[in-house]
Amino acid sequence: MPELNMLKSEQGDAWFQPNGPNTEPLYLGTCLEVDATTEPMGTRDLKFRMNGNREYEPISEKSNPGDKVTGTISIDSEATRNYLERMSGKCVDGTLFLNNSGCGKKGVWPNWQTSVALRKIKLESRAFDGIVKRAENSQFTKNDHSFSAWPPIIKNVNVSMRRVATTEANALNDITFNDDTTCYDCGNLLAVGQVGAIACDAGAGVTANVLFTADNGLTWTAGAADPFAINSHIMSIINVLKDDGTRRYIAGMAAPAGAQGMIAYSDDSGAAWTTVNIGGAAAGHGVSYGGGLFALDYHHIWLASAAGYIYFSSDGGVTWTAQENGAIHAGVNYQIKFTDANYGVCVGAAGIVSLTINGGLNWYAGTIPVAAVLNTVEILDKKHLWVGTAAGALYYSNDFGTTWTQRTGFTGSGVGQVRDLMFKTPLVGYMVKNTAGPVAAILKTIDGGYSWKDIATPTNSGGNRVAMLDFNKAFLVGEANAATGFISILSE
What we know:
The chain has two domains: about 10-155; about 160-490, Methylamine Dehydrogenase, Chain H (7 Propeller), CATH 2.130.10. About 0% of the residues lie in helices and about 45% in strands.
């Protein structure tokens, strides 16, 4: 039996990010140990009844949430205070990373093979051991720091990519999965990422397909009906729950020249579609890019349109109202995202960033990070934004678009295109980066965007969109390669 590639504790090292995500992690050195780090997963309270035999039997249960993560760091004491001693008692809202570099050199941040991240660390107590001894002339070694952190423990591992087979011959522009779950007595079991859809280009003289999966993206099948007319590309697709038993898929047609834009929705996984106009009598409005549609839920859906318009639907995509009518700019809007029902951002041509803090009732222009097309945007919270450009550059803002800083140092920075960005938490995210070829690469960050690690990508002709299901699983779709659309899964 071959030997397993087991990681050893001596290959581990510890890093601390005292200033939060997207800042430099500090190496804590080699003379330390970290004991078992514990995350309570929650408890269950059972309700009992007495049966005919006067025996108690459980009939239901109530789940209780977990609690804070706890652990201890032990560091060799020296004549001067170590970093953790200097930090003790201060208001530090940082992240502790416990990495394992395998056969790579310790103390080099990009060498991590596995990484456990503990957010919002707080040192709760400290202890000294072996300060004075009667007979032994031993080293005064014990300096223990007990800590707590917010759940969950974030474990990242090195992922690999493999291509998923499809018979679809055209480019794939967007991808969506369910982010809700169903379990136990609430209906049929449904895991996050179990069902989803892909928006496709139309071949010459034919209609564009929507591909569907019901097995976690392992297989994809075209829906029985297509939503739009011949030669009409589907640029974006999202899904929302209409009710407990109905999932609605909403597809956006490419902005047409000289005609009204179109949206289609299906409540039966593509067996039938209903199409509706957007833009009223205006011609040329509609979606132009993957991620041009965004939904928080059935009642909060936005559309980034050509001609500088932004539309909103409160009824599952049936009707659309213009929230922004091209006053900020008249160019193409590409992607739009919200972090909640109030705070949102839309990006487009000429470096335009449109912002709202009231759900789109009012939109205003943020500062232009660079005079280039902004393909993609990510909003982490009410302060932190990322944008990627058609010139291959990456920028971030810590003040909701008032000021911007360029992030460089990743492979391909400043050339090609940054096609897409998606973060699962403020620490962990993926970037789709195309060369001028185009050939897609996908990069992962575990430190909030301060550094990006390349993932080996199968042969391709350019990537368009990434869908991130958890910290270590994602899907990438892109242009047709070797006669079929490109679907690739990233997993352990």
